[in-house]
Amino acid sequence: MSMMGHNAGEGAPVRSRYGVDLATTKAGTPGGVFMRQFWIAVYDSDDLPAGRAMPIRIMGEDYTIYRGKSGKPQVIANRCPHRGAQMFLGWVEDDDIRCIYHGWKFDCSGRCTEQPAEEAGYNEKVKLKTYPTGEHMGLIFAYFGEGEPPHFPPFPEPEGEGVIEVRPTTAVPCNYLQCFENSMDEVHVAFTHAPGGTHAKLAHDLPVITAEETPWGMMRFGTRKDGKVRHTMHLAPNAVRVFVPANFGMDGVGGWPDMTLIFTPVDDENCRWFATSKVFVSGAERARYDEKRKEMLQKVKEARPVMDVVNDIWSGRLLYQDVRHPFLARVQDIAVQAGQGAIADRENEFLGRSDAGIIAWRRILARELRIIAEGGTPKTWAAPSPDIAPVMGA
Ligand code: FES
Ligand SMILES: [Fe+2]
Question: Domain 163-373 belongs to what architecture?
Answer without folding.
Answer: Alpha-Beta Complex (3.90)
